[in-house]
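Why should sequence recovery work at all? Because a backbone constrains its sequence more than one might expect. Tight turns favour small or flexible residues, buried strands favour hydrophobic ones, and helices have their own preferences. The token representation captures these environments compactly. In the example below, the structure is given first.
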């Protein structure tokens, strides 16, 4: 699945991932391949992604919105 993490100023990350974990306003949640379509609001915290080489990366966000649709994750972050 593809993820794009965008801020108003730049693209932070774009690439293929196995999983992504987000700091949702109602608690953290993970997205895996073939996840149902959804939109959620993020709170301040860390986005964790695991790439296709099983390497973990973390991105600090102050909040934002995440959309999941057809194995593509779009994150609009602060």
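From this structural description, the recovered sequence reads:
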């Amino acid at each position: 699945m593809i993820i794009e993490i965008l801020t108003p100023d730049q693209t932070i990350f774009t690439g293929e991932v196995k999983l992504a974990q987000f700091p949702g306003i109602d608690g953290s949640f993970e997205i895996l391949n073939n996840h149902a379509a959804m939109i959620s609001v993020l709170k301040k915290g860390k986005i964790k992604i695991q790439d296709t080489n099983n390497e973990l990366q973390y991105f600090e966000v102050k909040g934002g919105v995440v959309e999941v649709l057809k194995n593509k994750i779009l994150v609009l972050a602060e």
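A few observations help interpret the result. Residues 39 and 67 are 4 Å apart (CA to CA).
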